[in-house]
Amino acid sequence: MTPILRAAANVLFHVPDLVRYGSRPFREGAARPGDFSAALARGLRSFGAAAAYPPNQVFIGNAAPESLRDTPAPWFDHPAPGASPRGAFGEILPQAAFYALLRRADQFGLVMMDAARAPDPGDLPGPAAALLGGEEKEESHGEAEISGRIEKGDALSLEHEGERIGCVRRDHEADES
Which DSSP letter does residue 86 get? Predict the structure, then answer.
């Protein structure tokens, strides 16, 4: 039997609550916590703004790459009119879907979620629904256990819309990631 690829799709996730863990935000946040955190929060965009960002529309197939030449810079100031998060080549998914997929893909038990606080990914179309198909993990971790891991420096907080919903714990002390 020879495996073949019959279809593919691009997926972009809009996950603003993880931006702070990027390399530069992480360094800047450590150097000047209050100032940088506030500036970072002001700079985050909504799901609608991310979906209407012209390069993202190109990525999912709703616009031709050449259309970017005619779009004035900076592109985030010129959202694509009538933008859809779903295109011919893929889709843009919200943070709640990312967390649901992260939880589903966690084979090693590193993602600890409080099921009562975890966001509902909602009704997702097409490929995203297929990725979430099947039985969902029922294991839930309480706020005390999650907070304890974070305070100990053993985990990074996962938040959704300003509320802690869980954490990602490290697996080995020598592994910074």
Answer: B
Instruction: Provide the whole-model pTM.
Output: 0.82
Q: For residue 159, what are its two tokens? A: 């938040």
Using CA atoms, how far apart are residues 47 and 92, in angstroms rounded to an integer?
9
For 87, list phi and psi in degrees, rounded to 5.
Answer: -135, 180
Exposed, middle or buried by CB within 10 Å (0-12, 13-18, 19+), for 1?
A: exposed
Evaluate whether 98 touches 113 at the Cβ level (below 8 Å): no
Question: DSSP string covering 25-50, please?
Answer: HHHHHHHSHHHHHHHHHHH---HHHH
**Could you tell me if 52 and 80 are in contact, meaning their C-beta atoms sit under 8 angstroms apart?**
yes
**Is the CB of residue 85 less than 8 Å from the CB of residue 51?**
yes
Structure tokens at 101: 């997929």
Structure tokens at 21: 């863990």
Q: What is the DSSP string of 104-134?
A: HH-SSS-EEE-TTTSPP-----HHHHHHH-S
**Model confidence pLDDT, tens digit, residues 2-50:** 989 888 878 899 999 999 888 888 888 788 877 788 888 888 999 999 9
**Residue corresponding to tokens 């100031």:** 77
